[in-house]
Specification:
It contains 5 helices and 17 strands. It is of the alpha+beta class and 397 residues long. The protein has a 4-stranded antiparallel β-sheet, with no helix packed on it. A hairpin with a 4-residue loop joins strand 3 and strand 4. The chain starts with a helix and ends with a strand.
């Protein structure tokens, strides 16, 4: 039976709500890249959006009214008229870096589209020299030794307060419990006053929120995801091959911090000195000849009282495109502390000692001096500590 004229006109009118003149946009996303569509009319409810194939598809390219992308995305519909499509494709897919707005489908008038970069960087596999090449500090930074690290991805910035809050809110609604809510001087400043336990659980929550496999468990068989309480997760309770987020090992952190400049003192390769223009730390030109100062904290960040953190990305990135690998806030790492660990550590992807009470901190802070900002410097503290000059960043395979 042929469709009536009314039915034909109605169907055509319905299509015009979604399909308009041709326009194509392409971006090269990092993991976590999000395309946000605002002012979408009619508002796409979850069921309706799924019917229009805004979501996952198991094979090849798929097409929705506003976007065409590859397998590995996840979409979120939090409020009427707003659709978020987040790119979380596995990095070992050679075709992963194409995200394209559908050909012959344009952005309707009034719809606002924004692309948020995923914000992480690949650190290629390979060896590097780990430890104190200049023999200027504690023996626990020696001997200088060669370490092989498999490829991984690291957040370009320390986790910000805004990023922490987004995952933290989701986590509380999904069975997680934390000892500290986290603090931050502003949304773009690093989160701080979080313990090692808080950070490990947050990494798991971030993974599950993005549909990735968590890394931290409370059992040998990786059956129970670590979500609450105080658990000194063992090395064997980490699912190292999972695609979820975790804290970097000491070795991963140091390789990343060096930015390809193995034998240098700081996370930059042009000079062996540090200055206020390079990082957020406490200048002390009297004690440290490699500190060019000026002395004291940077007055730009002292407004409003402590903590004197700086916003992410304020200073130049290192050779790998990573920001604040020196100063701002200490960064929690996975490893337990072992004073002689470098003499017995595995030469490939060392996970840190199997025993020990303290956990590692790296990178120095706004509250520390130039010596703490050295790429080889090893800080350590009880994992329950939550102070206003310690935060973290994540890595993943």
């Amino acid at each position: 039976m042929k469709p009536t004229l009314f039915a034909t006109i109605f169907f055509a009118a319905l299509l015009t709500l979604f399909i308009v003149r041709a326009e194509t946009t392409q971006v090269q996303p990092d993991n976590g890249t999000t395309i946000t569509w605002k002012n979408v009319v009619p508002s796409l409810g979850a069921k309706f959006a799924s019917g229009l194939r805004i979501g996952l598809w198991n094979d090849g390219w798929w097409r929705g009214p506003y976007v065409m992308t590859r397998t590995g995305t996840a979409w979120r519909h939090d409020e009427p008229g707003v659709v978020h499509i987040k790119y979380t494709e596995k990095r070992n897919d050679p075709g992963r870096n194409t995200l394209k707005i559908k050909y012959r489908v344009s952005i309707p008038v009034g719809v606002v589209v924004s692309v948020t970069d995923g914000g992480d960087t690949q650190i290629a596999e390979g060896t590097f020299m780990m430890g104190d090449a200049l023999q200027e500090n504690d023996l626990n930074e020696r001997p200088l030794h060669v370490v092989y690290i498999s490829a991984f991805y690291m957040d370009n910035h320390e986790v910000t307060k805004a990023q922490w809050d987004e995952v933290y809110t989701w986590a509380l609604a999904h069975g997680y419990a934390f000892d500290h809510p986290g603090a931050g001087k502003a949304a773009t400043h690093p989160v701080q006053t979080v313990s090692w336990y808080d950070c490990v659980k947050w990494c798991n929550a971030r993974s599950q929120m993005q549909g990735l496999t968590p890394c931290y468990y409370t059992d040998w068989f990786h059956a129970t995801v670590y979500k609450n309480g105080i658990c000194d997760v063992e090395n064997y309770e980490v699912k190292w091959d999972a695609n979820g987020y975790r804290l970097p090992t000491e070795a991963e952190w140091e390789k990343a911090a060096r930015g390809g400049a193995d034998m240098n003192r700081f996370p930059w390769s042009d000079v062996q000195t540090i200055a206020r223009a390079r990082a957020n730390y406490v200048g002390d030109t009297v004690t440290y000849p490699y500190d060019l100062g000026p002395n004291g904290n940077n007055p730009l960040f002292m407004l409003g009282g402590e903590p004197y953190t700086s916003p992410g990305g304020y200073f130049a990135a290192n050779g790998y495109g990573l920001y604040d690998m020196a100063g701002d806030v200490w960064e929690w790492c996975w490893d337990r502390y072992g004073s002689t660990y470098y003499t017995s550590a595995a030469a490939s992807d060392p996970p840190g000692p199997a025993t020990g009470v303290s956990r590692m901190l790296r990178g120095g802070s706004w509250h520390g001096s130039a010596v703490n900002c050295r790429a080889a410097y090893r800080g350590y503290v009880d994992p329950s500590a939550a102070v206003n000059d310690a935060g973290f960043r994540c890595v993943r395979r």
